[in-house]
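Dear support,

I submitted the protein below through the web form. The confirmation email said the job was done, but the results page showed an empty box. After a refresh the structure appeared. I'm attaching both so you can tell me whether what I see now is the final result or a partial one.
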Amino acid sequence: MTDDENRVAGLLLAAGGGRRLGGRPKGLLPHRGRLLVEHAAEVLRAGGCASVHVVLGARAEEVRARAALPDCALIDNPDWEQGMGTSLRAGLTALAGTGTRAALVLLVDQPGIGAEAVARVRRAYRSPRSLVSAAYDGVRGHPVLFGAEHWAGIAATATGDQGARAYLKEHADAVELVECGDVAEAYDIDTEADLTHLE
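What the results page shows now:
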């Protein structure tokens, strides 16, 4: 791994309040004997991210108290109720000035995405100009990698629950798609019915 690749940070967005789950933050849901936020942070680390940064929001103090997140940088997003875009902005702001060359973004509520998908997306990093996205049968999904040169533009357009969608659409020609459908499933844990995906 080159020095440049060592500067790809994992950015886990885990601030949501789980409105459609009766107000249960998704990061606190149990999965495979631990909390979903712990599972997702480990996926980023196992996928080769040099550091892992976790954006917290809903019941952040409870997550800090209950979750074992050793060596993770915890970032508070006081505006989490305004949507995922605020968490993405908070995470990218925290990474600015750290020497990080790219942020590899994973959502806490997609436990079907494992370390191999993260590793594939991370390996596609080339420079701070890189824009990389996992794809499922050719359709863009998560995780996504944003080279540092794109952070300001992404932050400027990240609103509501859209995250980087508008920016990626505008720069579609620059996005490298990495097929991950053979090693990951990109379902979300959004509703009570989705809880059947948890183990």
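Response: this is the final, complete result; the empty box was a page-load delay. The CA atoms of residues 128 and 147 lie 4 Å apart.
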